[in-house]
Amino acid sequence: MAQVSGKVAVVTGGASGIGEACAETLAREGAAVLITDIDDTLGKGVVERITKAGGKAHYLRHDVRDEAAWPGVIAEAETRYGRLDFMVANAGIGIMSPIATMTLADWQRQQAINLDGVFLSIKHSIPAMKRVGGGSIVLMSSVAGLRGAPGLAAYSATKGGVRLLAKSVALEHAADNIRCNSMHPGIIATPIWEKIPTGAEGNRRNAPIDPRERAAASVPLPRVGEAQDIANGVLFLCSDASSYITGQELVIDGGMTAGGRPSRALQ
Domains, the chain, ranges and CATH? Predict the structure, then answer.
């Protein structure tokens, strides 16, 4: 039996990588999924694959920083599918830079997407979840939200903020039967590695970071993580299998945070 049959989810940043895997997994397990992103081509492609496989999905262009657009996102889910049960706040970016040379613009952009966007996703989904008697909010953090890393101070600040935001939301809305947990991926092979800018705003690396090389150097399990590994965890946190879990961190990192030397990779 499908694990989330009849439920409705919003997945931000659902056009590629972890968000794409989350959207496809929730749809495969019976949920109707509203995918939001700013990459229209990839987002519509995810919807096409889901619908071809017999699932329910719709794409909506949305920048998570835009609060004025958030009521329309929630209304789209309720109007199209009748309810909202799950919010997967996945949209995020990474900018690698030493803190002493990071521009304020890069700091603020990362904060706006990774933290402000998550706050808005929570704020605007809660009333809809109350209308159906509860729900599950999953916030995409990182192992970088559990420990520091050189070159990732600003990123870690956002992901650490997401971790404690989840705990506070969980306590505020436990009586509403709304659960909130944070997800902490380790090194996951997704397209984000090719998009990580460094230094001043808009600069890029001369060559992309290879997540498999990073994993080989710092992950105890003998492979890099895949987006599906994280999607499996998100499915668990949305499903009734985790109905008594709230305000917690789910770490999926191949053993990275169990001990040993820290990685310098973006996680």
Answer: 8-258 (3.40.50.720)
Kindly report, residue by residue over 72-83, the tens digit of the pLDDT.
999 999 999 999
**Hey, CA dihedral for 248, 253, 254, 259, is it positive or negative?**
negative
CB 261 within 8 A of CB 225: no
Q: pLDDT tens digit string along 125-174? A: 999 999 999 999 999 999 999 999 889 999 999 999 999 999 999 999 99
- Please, what sign has the CA dihedral across residues 153, 208, 254, 34? positive
**Are 224 and 187 in contact, with CB atoms under 8 Å apart?**
yes
**How far apart are alpha carbons 167 and 149 in whole angstroms?**
23
- Asked if 179 and 122 count as a contact pair (C-beta separation under 8 A), the reply is no
Show the tokens assigned to 235.
């499915």
98-107 burial, b at 16+ Cβ within 10 Å, e below that, comes to eeeebeeebb
Round to whole Å and give the CA distance between 35 and 44: 9
Q: Evaluate whether 164 touches 184 at the Cβ level (below 8 Å).
A: no
- Residues recognised as catalytic: 155
Select from 6, 3, 12 the least CA-distant residue to 138: 12
Please choose, from the candidates 2, 110, 95, 17, the residue with its C-alpha nearest in 3D space to the C-alpha of residue 56. Answer: 2
CB 254 within 8 A of CB 225: yes
Q: In degrees to the nearest 10, what's the CA dihedral of 190, 191, 193, 197? A: -150
- This prediction's pTM: 0.90
